[in-house]
């Protein structure tokens, strides 16, 4: 197997395979934990890809599951080795949402709904700086700069010449009206949003205030889909102290249906573009 793989995605694939082997054996996570003298939570973390998996972990689990085909064992051991490599984001030190970045880096498409701010992949540097400083008032300037650099690096998925990320964004009007930084900065941000929306793989829609109640009032979320059919889609919900990742098919389906309702209630692409341009002009006229 190639070694230059995304470690986050490799952990997910390995975890899914280990879960499949456990289920084929007819064992519960609790039973496996008892056999290995570890906690049940460790088995769960290994299977959901949130924890690094050592080759020893893989060997022990394969023994418990009585995997006789050495080729399967060797393949899983290599996946464990690959999953412990570092992604580009690790060079920036401790990033709170590093799991998400790993998923986003490998995703084929991303559907985002944001009721409050312009999504990170479409932010200007100045907007990102002002937003992070305002949202995290006790953060040191050096840490703010690190977060901004990571955000700018993430945006390379949008401008990549080959296989760019397919991005669909639905914004609430509040994200356009909230003055982050100052009005001149907001004008530049909205103009940048219009520019990015011209890319063939980027779609931006807006839900104006006059639409009233809609399915996105519960807050921001993103749906990531991957090029490999073996990688299940993920719903990502950002939190203050921890993030939520939903991977069960039923959960992903519910959020996907909700996103379709959001797209249906939003202005169409052309109307959204005109709407954004109108608000940008209001900032310029002030």
UniProtKB/TrEMBL annotation:
<protein>
    <submittedName>
        <fullName>Helix-turn-helix transcriptional regulator</fullName>
    </submittedName>
</protein>
<dbReference type="InterPro" id="IPR001387">
    <property type="entry name" value="Cro/C1-type_HTH"/>
</dbReference>
<dbReference type="Pfam" id="PF19054">
    <property type="entry name" value="DUF5753"/>
</dbReference>
<dbReference type="InterPro" id="IPR010982">
    <property type="entry name" value="Lambda_DNA-bd_dom_sf"/>
</dbReference>
<dbReference type="InterPro" id="IPR043917">
    <property type="entry name" value="DUF5753"/>
</dbReference>
<dbReference type="Pfam" id="PF13560">
    <property type="entry name" value="HTH_31"/>
</dbReference>
<feature type="domain" description="HTH cro/C1-type">
    <location>
        <begin position="18"/>
        <end position="72"/>
    </location>
</feature>
